[in-house]
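Working notes for the structural subgroup meeting. M.R. asked for a predicted model of this chain before we commit to crystallization trials. I am recording the input and output together here so anyone reviewing the notebook later can reproduce the run.

Input as submitted:
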Amino acid sequence: MPTSRQQEQLDKINATTGDNNRRILLSGAHVITMDAQGEFVGDVLIAGDRIEALGPGLAARVDGNAIVVDVAGSVVIPGLVDSHIHAWQGQLRGMAPDATFADYMSLTHGKLGKAYRPQDMAIAERLTAAQALNAGTTTIVDNSHNSRSAEHSDAAIEALRGSGIRAVYAAGPAQEGDHQHQLPADVLRLRDTYSRADGLITIRLMDSWPTLESWAFAAEHDIDVSSEIGGWITDSEALLTSGLLRPGHTLNHCSGLSDKSWAAIADSGAAVNVVPRSDSNLGLGAFIPILAVNRRGIQEGISSDNEMCYAHDLFTEMRVLQTVQRGLSFGEMYSGAADSPAPYGALDALRAATVGGALNAALSDQIGTLAAGKKADLVVLSLDRVNTRISGSAVGSVVNFAGIANVDAVFVNGAVAKWGGDLVGLDYESLARAGEASKEYLLANS
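Returned structure, recorded in token form:
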């Protein structure tokens, strides 16, 4: 709950929304830029939708019209990026905590997905966006593989636009049941209709079961594509070595791939994300293929996949990534391997959730680090909590101790999405009730 001072500051910020001359100074924080500037204690100056400057002593350089927010004792980090999430399942949250991959496919695509109306897509997207923003995730790559009609896609995108999150919407055809078969062609209409100069929504194709034909379509029309890829995809090696893989491709999971496939991925410039919890939870692999990623010098992103099994929470994903990578690395070293990748530190995990996520979203020029000229997507973490009150390393506190309860403020494109620990401009109780009603409808009609 915002204090009276915080509410006063928020009112001033909201009163100047859309004014490109508005300046907000976050003062006195420990800033982790994930850029060449590294870490420092100082200030972040936001002008309009971008970062104007960072560094110590900026308070002395701003005029009296700037809105100064004292965040001493807090940590400021780049907005977190979820490289792969199926936001259309927002109202199905927690329905199958122990599901295998077969269970998941049967419940979502074989049953509930076939009953979705456009309004169910919209409710799901709003629920997922709210959960993400609350958790400090400012950008999602939304793999929407239940786009049953053009209207379903439109409803999902409009919901994302209204949420204030930055999103890469990847339209994917429904897996089972009746649908319009409008994809991939409809992705061109979506791109022309919804891509905006501010970059809050970008459009790409989602490929659940990738084929040479869909990748050729993407190459012909210069459109990015997100693909589920792993040993369960028939002829995955032939696909990955086809010459169609290129920058602008995002590859999810990547479990069970051959050395030849990994070489092709590294040479192509495609982005890769791993899902620290999902692969083990669903049985797609014992653990994520992080050492294969490391050996090829690829900067991975991390993702949460879906909320049917567990909550979206990139703080947890970072911790699991670090733990699994270190365990696998030490295991190889103990077995005598000469080329085992070095064990991860906390900074490596944070890099995956920021820099790596920006690569997967194909938005590295705009987000992923804090630097002058980049979009003002950032998170203020309060360390004045039981879990972080006594802390040493700032990066260690973020990755190994902090959580959603520490997310005090969230900015996306210079606009406030969370303030004083509360989401801004959202009646979440009404949204939750709409989600419950949607879930009941889906259960009754599938």
